[in-house]
Specification:
Length: 254
């Protein structure tokens, strides 16, 4: 007898597996000094939490994420148990774009508010910024409440507003997970397609993690449009370090 796994379960657990697989690949590449955005020693000096603590924090957030995802799929599922048909490829592309815009919009305003509100920043969002030198598997290192508000609720809204099926959600949330990990990978690798197609990338987000960029580059994980519209866009130049690697340096705003 064949064992069938529902699209809802796959949509819940596949992005979690993708997170650890993709970030694991980047950790294996972490020794590529000629492509790092920070010298390797800076992690130990500037980051104030251990990698073990980061792993625990991410696992806690993913536990909340799994619980909310299962609840969401339970609410929207068809009691008949029949898998909804997939729409045409064109409709799926449109749903992807809608979901990306919804996620970006939600995360920009929630993320920015957590910086503007001193209480929320001190007690909630500062946990993510304890990683001044970002690395791949620290992408989802957040306070559980932040993870719920920014990532889990933002993902739920993207799913509901776009009207995508659970099967499409498997691909979308896996893609969003890969993009988020890539933005925190701390590397500028040649041929990285995310750097080709998205201005919001590892260097752009690295600026935000530095003290001078704390009030800029809130957009995540796909586009930079809200930063540009609302005056929080801080451009940068990528400069090669003499000892190897790159540095993302902010370009002063007029």
């Amino acid at each position: 007898m064949a064992f069938a796994v529902s699209d809802e379960l796959l949509g819940t657990f596949v992005p979690v597996a993708v997170y650890w697989i993709y970030s694991g690949i980047y950790m294996l590449l972490g020794g590529l000094e000629n492509y790092r955005l920070h010298p390797k020693g800076e992690e130990d000096v500037k980051n104030i939490v251990s990698k073990g603590t980061v792993v625990q924090g991410v696992l806690v957030q993913q536990t909340f994420q799994i619980a909310v995802s299962l609840l969401l799929f339970m609410v929207v599922s068809d009691d008949s148990g029949v898998t909804p048909p997939q729409p045409s490829p064109l409709v799926i592309v449109v749903q992807f774009i809608i979901a990306m815009v919804v996620m970006d919009t939600w995360q920009y305003f929630m993320h920015r508010y957590m910086h503007l509100n001193k209480f929320l920043y001190k007690h909630i969002h500062s946990k993510h910024h304890s990683l001044v030198v970002p690395y791949a598997f620290g992408a989802l290192y957040n306070h559980p409440l932040e993870g719920l508000i920014l990532d889990t609720i933002g993902g739920a809204l993207s799913f509901l507003v776009s009207g995508m099926t659970p099967r499409t959600a498997i691909s979308f949330f896996s893609f969003a997970t890969i993009k988020t990990v890539d933005d925190h990978c701390g590397l500028w690798l040649p041929g990285n397609l995310f750097h080709v197609f998205f201005n919001n990338n590892s260097a752009y987000h690295d600026i935000h993690h530095q003290l001078y960029g704390n009030k800029y580059n809130f957009s995540q994980p796909f586009f930079v449009i809200w930063d540009k519209i609302l005056g929080t866009h801080l451009p940068y130049s990528l400069v090669e370090r003499k000892e190897g690697g790159f540095e993302a340096r902010p370009i002063k705003k007029d």
